[in-house]
């Protein structure tokens, strides 16, 4: 793990992995996850010719919280990270709630971001009808109560506290509630360890990171129609967390987007070996 002190004094934690001489890609994690989510085979990522830079979002890991942040604010943080790493041009990638974070970077840096790759992306949740496209029961409740900030903050902290008491059990319960991803979570012991580490890091500050992302998902600060770079968008047709109509709605709003369907894949299927190769291979 590396650390960067941002211009406002906040700490940003990030990892680099893959081919150090490869095409740079800034990867953005989703809700409850962290910079650690990935296919755990480092040699696979290296073989794809990509240099992945993955940062913990505010309130995740040791990245400092950023109260009242909007999605658009992430673009400035990643501009500072890219400058510190001397990245002139680079691709961005995002999974689930990390997808609008990837778009925020592209919005902030239209001349530096070469391509955008998204997996199971979330559409702007302030658009009418989007709340109804959440399949997961906890997300459905969030959609109904998101305007009651104190309840969301309390629920986020309670969920994190419960999870951190027994992370292996939390992963098993998540797999039971999300059957399309059960094999992804549990089949490979090394991959399961990755999920346990990612969730632990995602909630080590309690529910702060979860709460801040939830609020930002309803307040992007830009519209998908303002993204001009080409987007490669992947989604699984067996997703038990988001209705597939949500990524398809986002694809409709993006000016230049190609969609790809992963058959029989769930929400987290992007980390499985073949799909990870599709996902990271699409940055070129």
TrEMBL record:
Molecular function terms from GO: chloride peroxidase activity
PANTHER family hit by this protein: AB HYDROLASE-1 DOMAIN-CONTAINING PROTEIN (PTHR45763:SF46), HYDROLASE, ALPHA/BETA FOLD FAMILY PROTEIN, EXPRESSED-RELATED (PTHR45763)
Source species of the chain: Gimesia aquarii
Keywords: Oxidoreductase, Peroxidase
Protein EC: 1.11.1.10
Gene3D superfamilies, A to Z: alpha/beta hydrolase
EC main group: oxidoreductase
Domain (AB hydrolase-1): residue spans on this chain: 24-272
Protein's UniProt name: Non-heme chloroperoxidase
Keyword Cell wall biogenesis/degradation: no
């Amino acid at each position: 793990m590396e650390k960067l002190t941002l211009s406002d004094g906040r700490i940003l934690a990030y990892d680099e992995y893959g081919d150090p001489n490869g095409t740079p890609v800034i990867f953005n994690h989703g809700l409850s996850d962290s910079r650690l989510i990935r296919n755990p085979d480092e040699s696979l990522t290296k073989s794809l010719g990509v240099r992945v830079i993955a940062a913990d979002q505010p309130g995740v890991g040791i990245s400092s919280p950023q109260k009242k942040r909007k999605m658009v604010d992430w673009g400035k943080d990643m501009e500072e990270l890219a400058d510190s790493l001397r990245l002139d041009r680079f691709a961005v990638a995002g999974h689930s709630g990390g997808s609008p974070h990837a778009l925020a970077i592209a919005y902030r840096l239209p001349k530096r971001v070469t391509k955008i790759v998204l997996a199971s992306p979330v559409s702007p949740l302030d658009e009418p009808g989007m709340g109804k496209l959440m399949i997961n029961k906890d997300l459905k409740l969030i959609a109904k109560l998101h305007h009651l900030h104190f309840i969301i903050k309390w629920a986020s902290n309670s969920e994190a506290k419960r999870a951190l008491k027994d992370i292996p059990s939390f992963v098993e319960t998540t797999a039971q509630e999300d059957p399309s991803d059960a094999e992804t979570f549990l089949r490979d012991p090394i991959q399961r360890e990755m999920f346990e580490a990612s969730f632990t890091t995602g909630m080590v500050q309690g529910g702060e990171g979860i709460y801040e992302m939830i609020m930002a998902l309803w307040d992007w600060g830009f519209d998908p129609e303002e993204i001009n770079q080409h987007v490669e968008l992947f989604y699984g047709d067996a997703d038990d967390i988001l209705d597939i109509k949500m990524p398809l709605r986002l694809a409709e709003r993006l000016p230049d987007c190609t969609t790809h369907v992963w058959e029989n894949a769930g929400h987290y299927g992007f980390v499985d070996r073949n799909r990870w190769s599709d996902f990271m291979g699409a940055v070129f």
